[in-house]
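Throughout our pipeline, every protein is held as a single compact record rather than as scattered files. Such a record has a labelled line for the sequence and another for the backbone structure tokens. The remainder of this section carries one protein's record, kept here as part of the documentation:
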Amino acid sequence: MNILLDTHAFIWFGTNRMDKLSELAITSFLDLNNEIYLSKASIWEMAIKINIGKLHLQKPLESLISSAIKNNIKILDIELNYILNYQNLKLHHNDPFDRLIISSASSEKMKIISCDEKFLLYKEVDIIW
């Protein structure tokens, strides 16, 4: 199964904050049969939040991304069809990065690891939590 990480889930996995994650999220993440992805939208979101002082990581973002890639997390590009699909999503969620993550997962038929309850309002995707 292909799974896309929501930004907070990536941060918690990357900083070893397993206490913040559900059992199902951890099991799904560790299952070697699953392909785990991180959207470039999440990387963009983290870079912006670091820049404006809303996010402080234990190590540099570049190091977090490098470690993720070494641990077989694949980076998902932002494709044109994700952006076009974005316009068809209902406005359940106001965060543009979260909406792009939802659109990407929907376009690629991926599940999303997220604890964001607003994600559950989107019937286009299955949420793991």
The mean pLDDT is 96. Strands lie at 2-5, 35-39, 74-76, 111-113, 126-128. Residues 96-108 form the longest helix (13 residues).
